[in-house]
Amino acid sequence: MNERALHPSWIVVLFVLSQALTLGAQISIEQQETFLSSAKIVSTRTLSEGITRSSRGTLSDGQLTHDASIQSIDEFKMTKVTTMGTEINFKDTYKANIAAYRLGKMLGLAHMIPPSVDRKVKGESSAVTWWVDDVLMTEKERFFAKAKPPNPDRWNEQMYIVRVFDQLIYNTDRNLGNLVIDNSWELHMIDHTRAFRTHKQLKSERDLLRCDRQLFKALQVLNAATLQEELRPYLTNNEIEAVLNRRDRIVKIFEAKAEDQGDSAVFYDFLPVRN
Question: pTM, whole model, 2 decimals?
């Protein structure tokens, strides 16, 4: 008999784990939200990466076991010196992570932004966010490894979406570690706690090169009423107004580009693996 053969009990454990992982990959976005809101938090451990004092929790509802990022930071300062310089009315808050997910869902970007819900963890209001499945690497790791995407065109189409979304939410912290790549080379945007500044202008207009056609249409129909309904618990009125101001600017820029360069040079049809 092979001494390294697995004990029957371990075979059962591995089978249960494989079933849980398969279930995690198959459940809907809404089911993921419910799981994050209600599943028992079995354990937590502090993450070494990042500056938002995040932790990684393991959650279970008896059928599915899955990890989540937990962020409870909620900081405001009149002025703060960061790596980007001195910022006025600095905010770093878990609320922005939830707002980014909700806004992304409204724009049809749920395939690129993992679900994030508002939940009390150890007595603190927190953003509990689905841990991305089947992670291959971060964009930071890809960049330093000089790894090339297997489909450069699809990769570029995803990056265009990231840039449009970051301009919309005025994301001041889109570092390379906050872009996660899964085994299918699909991009996932995480950690938006330093987004949603009240600036009415865009952070960098030159980042707006092309836009997914469905995303552009979704941007066009955004309005104050729906944003208030979805985001008001997590964004102030001024922050919501700024989103609309930046949306207006983004739409005008792409309309001007399309008129100058032609529709097909600016817009494209991105097909997500899952939405």
Answer: 0.88
